[in-house]
User: Fold this.
Amino acid sequence: MDRRSFLQSTAFTAFAATATTPWRYLSAAELNDAEVPATLSAMRGTGEHVTISSGELKDLAKALRGRLLLPQSEGYEKARHIQNPAIDKHPAMIVQVTGVVDIQTAVAFAREHHLLVAVKCGGHSFSGQSTCDGGMMIDLSGIPGVRVDPAAKTAWVSGGTLLGLIDREAMAHELVTTMGTVSHTGVGGLVTGGGVGRLSRRFGMAIDNLLSVDMVTPDGKAVHASATENADLFWAVRGGGGNFGIVTAFEFQLHHMQREALGGPILFGPEKSADVIKMFAEYSVNAPVELDLSLGYRREGTTIVVCYTGDMKDADKALAPIRKLGPTSDKVAATTYVDIQRSGDMKATSADPRMTMGQYMKARFIERITPDLAKAVADAVAKRNLTVNFAGGCGMRGVKATDTAFTHRYARHNMLCGTGWKLSEDGAGPMKNVRDFWNEMEPYLGGGGFYFNDAPTDAIMDNSNYRENYPRLVQLKNKYDPGNLFRLNANILPTVKG
Ligand SMILES: Cc1cc2nc3c(=O)[nH]c(=O)nc-3n(C[C@H](O)[C@H](O)[C@H](O)COP(=O)(O)OP(=O)(O)OC[C@H]3O[C@@H](n4cnc5c(N)ncnc54)[C@H](O)[C@@H]3O)c2cc1C
Assistant:
């Protein structure tokens, strides 16, 4: 492939120039001879091997403004890591993009060579979909950016942004939109998968606040999608994950909200667990929408984590049903919403040598925490060292299941159970502990689907999870990605030959 064919011209208008946070431009670097093997053995999406010549690699590097990292390149080792260190893969090449044209260049090269493609934003995919062995990783982490329009109450967010930047930039204008609960999670995976967080009960899911997207589709075109333009693609990207291309920019609706908030954990001893889960089942759904509650259930006791964003004069009333159960500790305190959003952050993120714990998680959407489910959780947890979490409190509802590709609108809660283990030890035992727990829960879970953003590798390919939306998603996959270039996600299988 010659150099010119990478440089397709498009009608893209970068908003980077007006972003409130400057993008970190990586200097265009040509590969030096020591980095480039005579040929590179890479992996196709189909699993076959493909050989790429040094000339093709050098042409690709020259066509990029960002960097092409090969296994011998400085920076490769850091860039290849994702948040879950138990998933330890080695892409044949990593393209660190600086903008839309770099993304188009990478996509064109990958399509030409039928490469396996992984797209990394925040790298938080539990199932490791943002990395691969032998393929191309397209690394968006060098293009964070947020531009807030306070008058229109909207924000443009670059496809490589971490959530904390969105919260911070929007809140500078006393504006917010729903994002996840850990500030170093990526907007790319979170929003294309749905996106739930502390404001879901108040403002809906992240996708319910999405006004439009700019995308690079598998054919390498830069397109805009909204309710009125490429509406089918806009429908698909709101819950269809990375199946339809790479979102280069998200446009969100923002909402006015004060900076001040109340947040913190309320802890209860084990003798109160049955009362706490009963209260939580009702109150997390019926409380004022400004109150978000999540529950952590362990055999040692329960923790309710509070985020209250309403009028402070009503806060005591809102928290009274929780406090009246007699907690052993109450650490709810006045702070800011942005600080609450950072309160669950980890000390170390991807590629940090302190990331020494493997992670495994299972999740299920629950329509109701029934008394039978509550008892089953209590019985199962009594004999195991694990934490069961419930989040959500209705934040997925209020939109028809077929209005977006995300279909689980029946759900009131997301029930999660995860585990961690030292990488120097065998993770089989802790993972089995979670799976055994989950098998015991099955009869009580009520037939809901799961949030593929929280699913482990062994579950993510279960397409029945798209429920009634699957036939339409297949049609759109056939239209936009018949060759299944973007397959490292909760993959929708095309039924035509690409
Ligand atoms: C610590 C932690 C906390 C979490 N908290 C929440 C939460 O509060 N709420 C919630 O809803 N979820 C939460 N999640 C789940 C989270 O939504 C998923 O892990 C999500 O995939 C993370 O997005 P990412 O960009 O960081 O992931 P990545 O691993 O970078 O990507 C995940 C998937 O998204 C695709 N993708 C990434 N960027 C783009 C893009 N720009 N365009 C198209 N596709 C793209 C990738 O190809 C891949 O398939 C959490 C996860 C972790 C690890």
In short: Confidence is low (pLDDT under 50) at residues 1-28. The pocket of flavin-adenine dinucleotide is lined by residues 82-83, 119-126, 129-130, 140, 159, 180-182, 185-186, 188-190, 192-193, 195-197, 241-242, 246-247, 453-454, 488-489 (CB under 6 Å). Residues 3-139 form a domain with the Uridine Diphospho-n-acetylenolpyruvylglucosamine Reductase; domain 2 fold (CATH 3.30.43.10). The first strand starts at residue 39 and ends at 43.
